[in-house]
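Sharing in case it's useful to others searching the archive later.

Someone asked me privately for the predicted structure of UbiA prenyltransferase, so I'm posting the question and my answer publicly. Question first, with the sequence:
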Amino acid sequence: MTVKKKAGLKDYIALARPDSWVKNVFMVPGMLFALSVFKTPIDSHLFFKIIVGIISTCLIASANYVINEYLDADFDRFHPLKKNRSSVVYTVNPKIVYLEYGALVIIGLSLAYLISYKFILLSAFLLFMGVIYNVRPFRSKERVFLDVLSESVNNPIRFGLGWFIFSPALGAPDSKWDFDWINTFPPTSIIVAYWMGGAFLMATKRFAEYRMIGNPETAGQYRRSFKFYTENSLLVSMFFYAITSAFFMGIFLIKDRIELLVSFPFFALLFSWYLRIGLLNDSPVQGSEKLHTRKWFMLYLFLFTALLCILMFVDIPWLYWFLKNASNY
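And my answer, the predicted structure tokens:
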């Protein structure tokens, strides 16, 4: 039996997955939409909140990654790629792991406190979902379909964190919303759409992993939920999540920002293109560090994001006229 080497400093840093901080880009739409609603003054205080909020979210996400990698070490060795993770290759000290987790939590929540009480509560919820996803007796990642739904909750949480960086303590007087504390929360429709959109991305990742492992028994040893999945069930779930996301996205666009309707065909193309990539052998959707290799897709994603930014702040009067007159027929 091969004796594993003890983990070094860089291996404990690797547990926090700083390369996955890019996922916090899901905060940006929340920032932009809050900016368009509340007309938040762009000043040094706002830049301070943005920087502190992003750092806080990165640290809290890393806390979740630390317990994820530590508790998954015995399962990741059955995965063709994850078997090379530090927690699998090296012997890690549990005391250091929990100390690292605690330090990330304390610093992350301390920074979150500087933003607002809503921001720190949502940050705590992100940590809570990390426990639900990884720690027994919950460990939702082992439950069929619930694994996807519980992990993809992190997407609307990130949207909300971005939103609360820009939203005031109370509803902005110059916004179309009433001056009421509850109206500083984002619309439910965009939260559900974001959640289901994230579920689509996650189910596509599961599908790609399942196909790459290629052996149902081995796949079940890596992730218990894979004992119950099939390629067909994953494909059907991907279709359901995409349709549900589109439905709630449509509600959001009509009720809150009609100009964004222009982006809908491009939104559909984005989902379709991502699905096409997900169906490839050894698909790069298995990790954000691999997806960037699809240069045309990343270019399209950049242009699509730029389009959303424009539509968020530019009014299109004829679109209101068109929808008003179309409703008469």
